[in-house]
Amino acid sequence: ALMRPQWGFRWQEVKRRGLDIVVALDVSKSMLASDIKPDRLQRAKLAIRDFAQNLKGDRIGLIAFAGSAFLECPLTVDYGGFLLSLQDVDTSTIPKGGTSLSSAIKEALRSFPTGEKKSRVLVIITDGEDHEGNPEALAQEAKKGGIIIFCIGIGTSEGELIFVEEQEGTKEFLKDNQGNAVKTRLNEEALQKIALATNGMYIRSTNAEFGLDLLYKKRLSAMEKSDFESKMNKLYEERYQIFLGLGLLLILAETII
Questions:
Q1: Cα distance between residue 190 and residue 216, in whole Å
Q2: Phi-psi category of 211—alpha, beta or left, where left has phi over 0 and alpha has psi -120 to 50?
Q3: SS3 string of the chain?
Q4: pLDDT tens track for 134-161
Q5: Above 90 in pLDDT, residue 175?
Q6: pLDDT at 179
Q7: Which one of 59, 196, 213, 221 has the fewest beta carbons within 10 angstroms of its own beta carbon?
């Protein structure tokens, strides 16, 4: 009975239910600012890693964006593969400088599968310093596609100077064309407008609470989930009960004898 013999089988349909979550991570040089420790980008990557490890059945994808955007990891339930893609992302991932929220939203629109327009979530993690495009108009387009956008603003309104590592290994302040040190500030207004346009939510990240766990508990866990994978599993019938029953009968017989 302990060997759990099995023979005979039946087919059972197994469905996977969950959300489609695309995380768009800002990898521009402004994310090197250290007003959020150790710096904005590293703190965001740590929070995304913890978030992905706590998912149960949801598909997750990753977009890296700066002046343009690129789909680093398509929607998947392979959380290990997603984390490998996340680990490789840094400020050199996107060669075009600047910060384009529009590019991130456009790439997200392409990354979601066609079909049922529900259970679609885009989480944008950025300091909100948008330098081009019209992200609010694209947010309206995302809403039509059934995508809810949640924005996490990382940084402080006071701002912080940006340290960049030179080829010699030394760190210097990032400077503009006039030689002035660049100071980056959190632009909450732009992120709030994008989130509001799709009935999403804006969260300001802090050193104590990044915001992804709060987002999942307050909004994502309550959203309607979709069946996005179905397969037939062969389940073998357990037959240990026969041998267990015989063993109990022998024990009972021994006590009678």
A1: 22
A2: left
A3: CCCCCEEEEEEEEEEEEECEEEEEEECCHHHHCCCCCCCHHHHHHHHHHHHHHCCCCCEEEEEEECCCEEEEEEEECCHHHHHHHHHHCCCCCCCCCCCCHHHHHHHHHHHCCCCCCCCEEEEEEECCCCCCCCHHHHHHHHHHCCEEEEEEECCCCCCEECEEECCCCCEEECECCCCCECEECCCHHHHHHHHHHCCCEEEECCCCCCCHHHHHHHCHHHCCCEEEEEEEEEEEEECHHHHHHHHHHHHHHHHHC
A4: 889 999 999 999 999 999 999 887 766 6
A5: no
A6: 60
A7: 221
Rounded to whole angstroms, the Cα distance separating 9 from 240 reads 14
Cis peptide before 5 (omega within 30 of 0): no
Distance between CA atoms of residues 44 and 214, nearest Å: 14
Structure tokens at 129: 């310093």
Please give the torsion angle defined by the CA atoms of residues 203, 81, 40 and 100, in that order, rounded to the nearest 10 degrees. Answer: -70
For residues 173-181, give the mean pLDDT. 60
Tokens of 240: 């240990």
Residue type, 134: N
Q: What is the pLDDT of residue 167?
A: 54
User: Could you read off the pLDDT of 72-113 as tens digits, one per residue?
Assistant: 999 998 999 999 999 999 988 998 888 889 999 999 999 998
* Residue written as token pair 């909004």: 219
